[in-house]
Amino acid sequence: MGRTAPAPDPSTAEVSAKDLLGEYISACYRRPPNKTIGHLGKEIRTLLDEGFEPEPIRAALERLRAKSLHPSVLASLVNDVVNAGPRAAGASGGGPWARTTTPAYVPYQNPDAPAPSSFGIGGRR
User: Fold this and answer.
1) In this structure, are residues 58 and 20 in contact, taking their beta carbons and an 8 Å threshold?
2) Cβ neighbours for 18, distance < 8 A, ≥ 6 positions apart
3) Is the whole-model pTM more than 0.70?
4) If we measure between CA atoms, which residue out of 72, 22, 13, 30 comes closest to residue 47?
5) Cα distances (angstroms) measured from residue 49 to each of 39, 40, 56, 60, 98
6) Which residue, 26, 40, 43, 64, has fewest beta-carbon neighbours within 10 Å?
7) Could you tell me which of 91, 57, 94, 95 has the C-alpha nearest to residue 77?
8) How buried is 8 (Cβ within 10 angstroms: 0-12 exposed, 13-18 middle, 19+ buried)?
């Protein structure tokens, strides 16, 4: 009664698909085609409706713009942003089963060791 409402906090302000799309367009060198903009707007709106925060969508939009990708991959890029974990040092990307317990044969480090056969022990080529 007679008091003024506190000013809205900009960090908690709701961000719309239109806002994110406008940021994307302003970062582009030239305006993308209308069909691309429309498709991208629908993808952004879908992600916001699913409950994704604006920050991962912004990061995914930056990747999309930098790599000039199709709007349909936006959801995959957002997934990559939110689920990317730290990679183990020296990991090949093949998972734990890709690691070997024996060192790889490197002829210049051990020239006296016999080369491993690709057909098993004593196999012929």
Assistant:
1) yes
2) 41
3) no
4) 72
5) 15, 14, 14, 16, 38
6) 26
7) 57
8) exposed
Residue 35 in tokens? 């069909």
> What proportions of the chain, in percent to the nearest 5, are helix, strand and coil?
45, 0, 55
> Model confidence over 52-83: pLDDT tens digits?
999 999 999 999 999 999 999 999 999 999 99
> Which tens digit of pLDDT belongs to each residue from 4-33?
756 655 555 689 999 999 999 999 999 999
- The structure tokens listed for 21 are 């799309």
